[in-house]
Amino acid sequence: MQIVRCWATPTNKRYDPTYTNILDNGCPLTSKSPAIPNLKIILNGESDKARIGFSAVSFKGGDIETIFLRCLINLCDKTKNNDCAKSCSDKANPSDGSVLHGDVYLKVLTSSPIAVRDICGGTNKGGCDHYCSVSSDNKPVCTCHQGFELGSDKKSCKIKNRSSPIGRTVPWYYYVPVILGVFLIIIAIVIIYRRRKKESGLYKVADLDKSDAGEGDESRFLS
């Protein structure tokens, strides 16, 4: 695999008018063009993989959050061509001359979006009032605390309308005091019931003792 050309854009548009060239004709750009910091060609034209490295790219104007890297590649057949790998250090101007040899099979490959910075980081939180998360297309997604709802701007949070019970949910811990209160009332009723039953049994025993004592006195009186 040969890398013919690489460039970076701030959007997913292949031919975005705002772009930065990284490689041209398989080699780093010459001094006539802006240099890319720490650009290295690690692997190019030597196997079925190609690899480059660089530390940064820059664009004029705007606050760039993501970049897309695109490379025009050629599939070079080593069985037909022994010159698939291009040396960029053997010429005063290495971008002169063509990197392409023999049969040409060109295709543009595009990387996934590369995040330049965390859009939910910092005090701004992506513009969200409460919570911020990142979507698959690298956009901020705002959510709110319980009891709040997202505003029409999809960023601000406001208290839910409490006048309508529809859709409202009460947290489970709100029921704990009620459950404990009912449980204590049941225990109190059971205790009172048992105490009264016990006292009623004592009264009956006392009445029987008194009646037995009265019958004994009456029998003595009759005798």
Automatic annotation (TrEMBL):
<dbReference type="InterPro" id="IPR042235">
    <property type="entry name" value="ZP-C_dom"/>
</dbReference>
<keyword id="KW-1015">Disulfide bond</keyword>
<dbReference type="Pfam" id="PF14670">
    <property type="entry name" value="FXa_inhibition"/>
</dbReference>
<dbReference type="InterPro" id="IPR001507">
    <property type="entry name" value="ZP_dom"/>
</dbReference>
<dbReference type="InterPro" id="IPR055355">
    <property type="entry name" value="ZP-C"/>
</dbReference>
<keyword id="KW-1133">Transmembrane helix</keyword>
<keyword id="KW-0732">Signal</keyword>
<feature type="domain" description="ZP">
    <location>
        <begin position="1"/>
        <end position="95"/>
    </location>
</feature>
<protein>
    <recommendedName>
        <fullName>ZP domain-containing protein</fullName>
    </recommendedName>
</protein>
<dbReference type="Pfam" id="PF00100">
    <property type="entry name" value="Zona_pellucida"/>
</dbReference>
<keyword id="KW-0472">Membrane</keyword>
<feature type="transmembrane region" description="Helical">
    <location>
        <begin position="172"/>
        <end position="193"/>
    </location>
</feature>
<keyword id="KW-0812">Transmembrane</keyword>
